[in-house]
Amino acid sequence: MDPSTCPYPLDPTGSDLHAEAARLSRRGPATRVVLPGEVEAWLVTDPVVLRSLFADPRVSKDPHRHWPAYRELPPDWPLHTWVSMRNMFNSHGAEHRRLRALIAPAFTARRIRELQPHVERITTELLDDVAAAAPGVAVDLRERFANPLPVAVISSLLGITDRSALDEMRRLVESFFSTTTTPEQMVSGMETLYRLFGDHVAARRRTPGDDLTSDLLAMRDEDGTRLSDGELTDTLMLMFSAGHETTVNLLGHAIAQLLTEPRHLAAVRAGDLSWDAVVEETLRWQPPLANLPLRFAVEEIALPGGDAIRAGEAIVAGLLAANRHAAHYPDGELFDPARSDSAHLSFGHGVHFCVGSQLARLEARIGLSALFDRFPDLTPAFTELEQRPSFISNGHVDLPAIPNPTTT
Predict the structure, then answer these.
(1) CA-CA-CA-CA torsion sign (266, 271, 273, 279)
(2) Residue 246 pLDDT greater than 80, yes or no
(3) Distance, CA of 147 to CA of 314 (rounded, Å)
(4) Statement: residue 93 has pLDDT above 50
(5) What InterPro entries does the database record attribute to this sequence (predicted)?
(6) Are 298 and 269 in contact (CB under 8 A)?
(7) What is the 3-state secondary structure (H, E, C) of the chain?
(8) How far is residue 317's CA from residue 295's CA, in Å, rounded to a whole number?
(9) Which domains does the chain possess?
(10) Are the C-beta atoms of 122 and 149 separated by less than 8 Å?
(11) Angle, helices 109-131/148-158, rounded to nearest 10 degrees
């Protein structure tokens, strides 16, 4: 049997995401892969095919309706959190439109512009903390800056004020993005996360505030058929997790690359490059999510080359492979913010396009410009960065850098 026709087992440790993406691309525009738990799916690597599937009404994100294998999965399947929640991420058609309509008003262009002073204030506070480092001492910018910035923004939007609960939420969400988390840890973590968000909802019900949780509660209370208790909790969990994990990785990759290739930073400072260009090229070159599960074929869908995704089969979006596909991006493996085409699929496409994409861009643009303005002599304290153990999340374990040079 030709090994290239056998389903490819994805490496759960994500030890070499780029080499794996290249191997998968060579197998064709879409190829069969094996996920944890011996679950098979199609992983799509061609950006044209992937964009088409993102916009195809024959592709669903609702496993309850369109993935027969879902009913056979054990309760401790490691990727359950990616498909089982009842929110707009895992819905289709009219149900998706209903759930998305509740969230979208919080992320309009006007609302995002209004958030800018708040993001700037949080950024300044975090950089004040970084600035306290002694001369010549390295600081983990992932832990001290890239991570807490989006967490503080999304928790403020949701009205989460309990610091200890927030720290636990962040830790648990990070463990869910790790594809080496054990089934036992996953089940226990989900129970804890549901309890924490349940407590948050109960607190906001007792004392409503000027936040999205209170808004969603009011909508549900006015018409109980619009948003169930489960949908409310799952929606908040989705917004919290999606609202910070991707931005953490976006900031981390941009910072690391600008430190590694300072000529790009010099071009920004000279006015030859914009921060927007840096952000978009980072999103293309290092998508915050390397592979995004799962979608499901509602009916058979033909693929280029004669293959077909049969009705009920699962689909993984190979974002890293698609964003660097050699046939569509010459020198796609190179970071080049000045390239003429930095189009990417990191925020998806079609009806499931990321509702928080503009907030992520705002946070990255403000965070990067403020960091490098505040610390013009910021220097890397690494030679190589350790990849987080995941074939989904594309980020680093840490990001050590020296903000204050040694005085002489």
Answers:
(1) positive
(2) yes
(3) 31
(4) yes
(5) Cyt_P450, Cyt_P450_B, Cyt_P450_CS, Cyt_P450_sf
(6) no
(7) CCHHHCCEECCCCCCCHHHHHHHHHHCCCEEEEEECCCEEEEEECCHHHHHHHHCCCCEECCHHHHCHHHHHCCCCCCCHHHCCCCCHHHCCHHHHHHHHHHHHHHHCHHHHHHHHHHHHHHHHHHHHHHHCCCCCCCEEHHHHHHCHHHHHHHHHHHCCCCHHHHHHHHHHHHHHHCCCCCHHHHHHHHHHHHHHHHHHHHHHHHCCCCCHHHHHHHHHHHCCCCCCHHHHHHHHHHHHHHCCHHHHHHHHHHHHHHHHCHHHHHHHHCCCCCHHHHHHHHHHHCCCECCEEEEEECCCEECCCCCEECCCCEEEECHHHHHCCCCCCCCCCCCCCCCCCCCCCCCCCHHHCCCCHHHHHHHHHHHHHHHHHHCCCCEECCCCCCECCCCCECCECCCEEECCCCCC
(8) 8
(9) 3-402 (1.10.630.10)
(10) yes
(11) 130
Q: 25 versus 174: which is more confidently predicted?
A: 25
Overall pTM > 0.85: yes
- The one-letter code for the residue type at 55 is A
1: pLDDT strictly greater than 50: no
Neighbours of 192 (CB within 10 A): 14
Asked if residue 301 lies in contact with residue 53, where contact means CB atoms within 8 angstroms, the answer is yes
Q: Give the separation between CA 177 and CA 381, rounded to whole angstroms.
A: 26
Q: Hey, what amino acid is at 190? A: M
| Token pair of 157 as six digits | 């939007």
What is the C-alpha to C-alpha distance for residues 355 and 101, in angstroms, rounded to an integer? Answer: 10
pLDDT at site 226: 67
**Identity of the amino acid at 170:** R
